[in-house]
Amino acid sequence: MRKILTPQFFRRPTLTVAKDMLGKFLVRRIGKKEINLMITEVEAYDGPEDKASHASRGKTERNKIMFGDAGNWYIYFTYGMHWMLNVVVGSKGYPAAILIRETDKISGPARITKYLKIDKKFNAKPANKKTGLWIEDRPACAGRGVKIKPSMIKRNKRIGVAYAGKWADKPYRFTYVQQKS
DNA sequence: ACGATGATGAAC
DNA sequence: TTCATCATCGTA
Fold it and tell me: Mean pLDDT in chain A?
C-alpha cells in the first residue's frame, strides 16, 4: 500500500509540509530499477522575507520555479559541483521550498542527488511517477515505513546560511530521530 | 581548515 | 563584462 504524494500535499504551509515530509520515501526510477530513500532531514525556505532563501531578492531566472505551483522540483547547482534537490511548497505566487538534506541510506544533500543521478533536467518538473522522481507515503507495516510522532522530530537552525541575519537562527531544519528502545 | 569548481545575480 | 558569492564535500 503506497501512496504517491500529490500537489495538494505540498500546497500547505511550508513548515507543516517540512515536518510531514519526514518518514516519507523519495523514489527514483532509473530504467527498471527503483531506488527508495526514507527522508530523515529537511530544511524549509519560507517566503520572500526569508533572507536565507533564494527568493529573498525577488524572482530571478533561477528561482522562478519557487514562485510557481507546489509539488514541482526546484533543482539548482551550487559550489561549482553540487546539485540541490528541493520541492516547491505553499500557494502559487508565494516562494517556498523544502530542501531534502538527509535520508536513511544517504546523508548530505549533494550526495543524495549524486546517488540518484539528479541534475537540472528535473528542474521545474512535477514530482510524479512519469518524471521518474517522486515522494511516497507508506504505512508502518510496509518495509522501512515508520509512523512519525512529534517526539521524534528535532528542530534546529539551517546549515550553511549564517549570512542570513536573524533568519539564520530560525529552527527551520527538521530531523527525524530514531527513538532508543 | 581549506580548496575544488562554475553558475548566478548584482554591479559596473 | 566582471566579480563576489555560494542551502557542499572530501581530504588534511
Answer: 96
